[in-house]
Automatic annotation (TrEMBL):
Gene3D superfamilies given in the database record: Guanylate Kinase phosphate binding domain, P-loop containing nucleotide triphosphate hydrolases
Role: Essential for recycling GMP and indirectly, cGMP.
Keyword Cell division annotated: no
HAMAP family: Guanylate_kinase
Positions with a binding annotation for ATP: 24-31
CDD domains membership: GMPK
SMART domains: GuKc
Top-level EC class: transferase
EC number: 2.7.4.8
Protein name listed in UniProt: Guanylate kinase
Length: 223
């Protein structure tokens, strides 16, 4: 029956969701690239982290981050509510578990803006589902210029971020992909290509084995 065939085909080609990670030293542009990707791609959802850092102008609670007090964050750690969490720049950041696991099972993809510590933890927990991408600035001077131009941090905070940048960059080789964010449009295009190619990987297409089996079970060519 035609209806059955259609639904069978859909099942056969279903794929498991992936965890697309963007990391970089602060100011290299990962939030910019992440926002462009979310706007351009209907199939990827942002993993909204919880953080104890203060909200920046223009940020929205529940959309950019869940802004929480330290006791609330600590209680979530106690309850094992995070897939991963870490201290960054004197604040706590963590990925709430609930939204991710259910979505992944339904084949939804998630975008993570997390640091190298979180990437290591996700790699340990779900390496097959993880696609780690590291964004590099074109130069250290340009990194400082971008942090200043962003206008969200006091000079002391900018210097702290610059000091940390080298330590963060030292983790570049733990990532499957590394992209230099010189021109934002060309960096975005590369990141998008990575996402598209990763979606096509054989291992992610959960129904492929039965699909190919059925394909091979058909009549031989010319029959
Ligand atoms: N491990 C981990 N890192 C996070 C999480 N959320 C954000 N981060 C990282 O924390 C760092 C600081 O983020 P943020 O305060 O937004 O400043 P930004 O680096 O200037 O965007 C960045 O490297 C983020 O990728 C999280 O849930 N887990
Ligand atoms: N390719 C680029 N060229 C020039 N400025 C950029 C580029 N990418 C991002 N920026 C700017 O640099 C600043 C830092 O970018 P942001 O995305 O906030 O970095 P991160 O999330 O890595 O801390 C922002 O003001 C952003 O508009």
């Amino acid at each position: 029956m035609a209806v059955d065939q259609n639904s069978e085909e859909k099942t056969a080609l279903k794929r498991r969701g992936l965890m697309f990670i963007l990391s970089s030293p602060s100011g290299a542009g990962k939030t910019t690239i992440a926002r462009k990707l979310l706007a351009a791609d209907d199939e990827i959802n942002l993993s909204v982290s919880a953080t104890t850092r203060p909200m920046r102008p223009g940020e929205v609670d529940g959309k950019d981050y869940h802004f929480v007090e330290q006791p609330h964050f600590d209680a979530m750690v106690e309850d094992h509510a995070f897939l991963e969490w870490a201290h960054v720049f004197g604040h706590s950041y963590g990925t709430p578990k609930a939204q991710i696991w259910n979505g992944m099972k339904e084949g939804r993809d998630f975008l993570f803006d997390i640091d190298w510590q979180g990437t290591q933890q996700l790699n340990q927990r779900a390496s097959e589902d993880v696609v780690p991408v590291f964004i590099l600035p074109p130069s250290i001077d340009e990194l400082r210029r971008r942090l200043i131009a962003r206008g969200t941090d006091a000079p002391k905070v900018i210097e702290a971020r610059m000091e940390r940048a080298r330590a963060e960059i030292s983790h570049w080789s733990e990532y499957r992909y590394v992209v230099v964010n010189d021109d934002v449009e060309s960096c975005f295009a590369k990141v998008r290509e990575i996402l598209h190619a990763e979606r096509m990987r054989r291992e992610r297409q959960t129904g492929l084995v039965s699909f190919v089996r059925e394909l091979m079970a058909g009549p031989p060519p010319g029959a």
